[in-house]
Specification:
- The structure is a single chain.
- The protein has 853 residues and is an alpha+beta fold.
- 24% of the residues lie in helices and 24% in strands.
- It is built from 16 helices and 43 strands.
- It has a ten-stranded antiparallel sheet, covered by helices on one side. Strands 2-3-4-5-6-11-20-19-16 form a nine-stranded antiparallel sheet, with no helix packed on it. Strands 23, 25, 26, 29, 30 and 31 form a six-stranded mixed sheet that branches.
- The protein is globular, with a radius of gyration of 29 Å.
- The relative contact order is 0.09.
């Protein structure tokens, strides 16, 4: 990082004047004309807008995910967010956030405001993600209004800050780091470059230490600078933004990564002593490029298409773009260059979110080769058309990389590389009673087992996959992964083998076949943790997870999570045990239990399917799966949702052909019809085994009603799938929809075509909204989601074959998929259906020519 100081007042004045000239009203020197210059105005979607600039206030409420408060989208990129009062200079997860109250829009004043207050009673030590709230009552209003091409932020406090909080409470605005590294800044009489990594000096401020939170150390890096004026990226017309503090403390430019690896840069100003109305007032002047418009984006599958399948490209345009340029399909020539295939107008689909969309149907093109779709100067990435497009480099990375990499209790080797060493061999200690874990696990007043809190539970040090971007084992993630793999093996007979899995020695070798189907070996690995836990506990576990926040947030090799030695409390002699992270410490994962009938039935469904898959591969383990599934069928009661028992009945019927399950299904056609959207895919497979005409008729009637519903929902987007954007990316939901469509198509081919299934896959592989057209599956397709939110995210890297949630919504209408490793709601990998649904969909596309017509 380079920081310099301007040494004379004249230099400072020159910088400020230059800033004003460049940023505030640069267009004022241009010749006058009859057309008024665009200015920020309040639009129908209740945010401030002009070409190239949007300013939102409290339309998102997700500060932990860097979405909320005042947010700025500049020239098509979100550059700032979370503009709000905070109690720390650079807060992170599990730190206090205000309760968001009423949001108001005053069109006469062109002003947006929102009421907020500390504390938020919904988040406390006993709630999900428990937060330690200090003894502070603070109510205030944040207001935003336009001023020409700039906007003003005003914060009004109901009462002055208590003296004890003066110097602690400030208004923060977070700046997205991913586009600032290497860019410059001016603040006060300092200037420098935004550094790629956080650099010292730093110090501990005891005012911000929280003894009950090991992550709240109070450590902060020295500000880059302070002053009344800040200019961000002055050298970049696309990113330049000026901030002036009119009232309140001086601006500080901070590095938010001092305590939190996933932090952003922060602009902060303290609330002055005694201040109420206008306690904070900033004038913010982003530089919107004159005449800016969203550049056309051509969206296709980054992998490609089989010759006979429907092929649809989507072109995303600025909604003001009325040009109807021809869309060109080009074939990449074997001799170099591109050959035109055709040129025609796209179908004007209309507006979705903030954009206008065209569609290009090129289904008639079947000649094998590499292709590009072009609209004006915008081109898609290259993609394939060919019969064997899914035979390699499609679903295979998920099976031969992602699942092996996520395997717990193993060492995972990959040629010269070790993805991780032996880990969690000390699993697990019984969780304490009456305890709410910071990641949402809850242990009630009993362990529900013979084990006492803190006691080692054997049988949990085998099998399972690390879930998500951390290392816990949620039982539903384990069972859903087993379930999905079993269904894929059953449907497509996948004997693919490119991995050695040695359970006896706990070693995995990627890119080394061992003569055994990888899919069966993975099913076995998932079943081992569920069955092992059931045998030891006499019930299912809820989850297995670290007891410590420091370990929970640890990035890198999970072998460093624990010392792999079962903690022995009796071996401790005097004093406290070693701190977590030191040898011999109580760093073992905790295992939680619960009474949750719906989850028990869900897990049993996965075991029933796993039993079928393992029947000849591992007969003993297959028998354990079936025995436990049938026992859970008998003993589980009082479920809230009948769909879980219907799902289990379907799987047990397919596994055993026992009439008891057929009779149960036949007696519950009303519940099946009511929940068909969620369980129709499962019961459709049972029709041949339930020999009752009334059953078939009821299920088919429900199928037709659901088809009408998805036709209606699918028509609301240009992507041909039901899609309602949320703060979290919708990729996993759309994958699940696609898998359900496969089973509905095979069970009811006259009702459901295969096009919905294939549209869902194309969405995942790149035909989705937003300027980032990456495949949501890392390492799959010409352009894919890299980096990803996996355990190696601190390296800006990815896990091949991992499927992220994908494009999220910045409310109300901005689709976003940032190239950034720390947004879990966009790029996090998860186990369960988030993994296996993609694998299944790609396999279904590979076999689509053999699906029933």
């Amino acid at each position: 990082m380079t920081i310099a100081r301007l040494r004379s007042p004249l230099s400072l004045v020159a910088v400020v004047l230059t800033t004003v000239c460049l940023l505030v009203h640069a267009s004022s020197a241009a010749p006058n004309n009859s057309k008024a210059e665009p200015e920020l105005t309040l639009n129908a979607s209740e945010y401030l807008e002009m070409p190239g600039l949007n300013v939102m206030l409290a339309q998102d409420v997700y500060p932990e995910g860097h979405q909320g408060g005042v947010g700025v989208i500049l020239n098509g990129e979100r550059v700032a967010t979370n503009g709000d009062l905070r109690l720390e200079p650079t807060p992170g997860q599990w730190q206090p956030v205000p309760k968001v109250g009423k949001r108001e829009v005053d069109r006469t004043k062109q002003e947006i405001s929102v009421r907020l207050e500390y504390p938020d009673p919904s988040k406390d030590r006993k709630g999900f993600n428990p937060v330690v709230y200090p003894d502070l009552k603070l109510a205030y209003t944040v207001r935003v209004r336009p001023e020409g091409k700039a906007f003003r932020i005003v914060v009004d406090l109901d009462q002055p800050l208590p003296d004890a909080w003066v110097g602690k409470v400030g208004f923060n605005l977070e700046l997205f780091p991913g586009i600032l590294f290497g860019k410059s800044y001016y603040i006060g009489d300092h200037f420098g470059i935004f550094p790629r990594q956080p650099n010292g000096p730093g110090s501990v401020d005891d005012r911000f230490r929280e003894p009950l939170d090991p992550l709240a150390t109070g450590y902060e890096l020295a500000p880059f600078g302070t002053g009344k004026h800040l200019v961000i990226a002055p050298e970049s017309d696309r990113q330049r933004m000026a901030i002036e503090s009119i009232r309140g403390g001086d601006l500080e430019l901070l590095d938010g990564r001092a305590q939190h690896t996933n932090g952003w840069f922060v602009v902060r100003a303290l609330v002055p002593k005694g201040a109420t109305q206008g306690a904070i007032e900033w004038l913010v002047t982003p530089h919107a490029l004159p005449g800016w418009r969203h550049r056309p984006v051509v969206q296709v599958s980054q992998v490609g298409y089989r010759p006979k399948q429907q092929k649809m490209a989507v072109i995303e345009l600025d909604r003001r773009d009325s040009a109807d340029l021809p869309v060109r399909l080009l074939r990449v020539s074997e001799n170099g260059g591109c050959e035109p295939v055709f040129e025609k107008s796209g179908h004007d689909w209309g507006q979705f979110l903030r954009y206008r969309y065209l569609q290009l149907d090129f289904s008639e093109v079947e000649k094998p080769g590499m292709y590009v779709v072009q609209y004006g100067d915008s081109k898609s990435a290259v993609f394939q058309i060919g019969e064997h497009v899914f035979d390699r480099n499609a679903w295979q990375p998920t099976l031969e990389y992602f699942l092996p990499i996520q395997m717990c209790h193993m060492r995972v080797n990959d040629r010269y590389r070790v993805w991780h060493g032996w880990c969690h061999l000390d699993d697990a200690r019984m969780a304490p009673i009456n305890y709410n874990h910071f990641d949402g696990y809850v242990q009630g007043p009993s362990t529900l087992t013979k084990y006492q809190p803190g006691e080692h539970v054997p049988g949990l040090d085998r099998g399972g996959w690390h879930d998500a971007g951390d290392f816990d084992l949620r039982v539903e993630s384990q069972s859903e992964t087993v379930h999905g793999l079993a269904l894929a093996y059953e449907a497509f007979h996948v004997d693919y083998d490119n991995t050695t899995i040695d359970q006896e020695n706990r070693v995995v070798e990627i890119q080394r076949p061992d003569g055994k189907p990888d899919m069966l070996q993975q099913i076995e690995h998932g079943v081992l943790t569920i069955v092992g836990g059931y045998k030891s506990l006499g019930r299912l576990y809820r989850g297995i997870i670290t007891p410590d926040k420091r370990t929970y947030t640890m990035l890198g090799d999970p072998a460093n999570s624990t010392d792999n030695r079962v903690y022995d409390e009796k071996a401790q002699t005097g004093g406290k045990p070693p701190a977590v992270g030191l040898p011999g410490s109580p760093d073992d994962n905790w295992v939680f239990t619960e009474n949750n009938p719906d989850r028990e039935l869900l897990v049993a469904s996965g075991l029933a399917a796993g039993s079928r898959a393992l029947k000849t591969y591992n007969p003993a383990l297959s028998g354990d799966c079936l025995r436990i599934a049938q026992e859970l069928w008998r003993v589980t009661a009082h479920e809230r949702y009948p769909g879980m028992r219907i799902l289990l009945a379907s799987e047990l019927l397919l596994t055993t052909k026992d009439r008891i399950y057929a009779d149960y299904l036949a007696k519950n056609t009303a519940a099946i019809s009511q929940g068909f959207e969620f369980i129709g895919w499962a019961v459709g497979r049972t029709i041949p085994l339930v020999d009752k005409p009334d059953y078939r008729a009821a299920v088919e009637t429900a199928a037709k009603a659901y088809r009408a519903k998805i036709d209606e929902l699918g028509a609301k987007t240009p992507y041909g799938v039901p899609y309602e954007p949320e703060i979290w990316g919708a990729g996993w939901k759309i994958q699940r929809f696609g898998v359900n469509q496969y089973f509905l198509h095979t069970a009811f081919p006259e009702v459901f075509p295969d096009t919905y299934m294939l549209h869902a896959l194309n969405f995942i592989l790149g035909c989705h909204p937003g300027s980032n057209t990456a495949s949501f599956v890392s390492g799959v397709g010409a352009k894919s989601m890299i980096p990803g939110y996996g355990f190696n995210r601190a390296d800006g890297s990815y896990l091949p074959g991992g499927s992220g949630s994908g494009t999220a919504l910045i409310r109300p209408d901005f689709p976003e998929l940032l190239e950034w490793p720390y947004l879990w709601q966009q790029t996090e990998y998860v186990l369960g259906t988030g993994t296996t649904d993609y694998l299944f969909l790609a396999l279904a596309a590979q076999h689509s020519g053999r699906l029933p017509e």
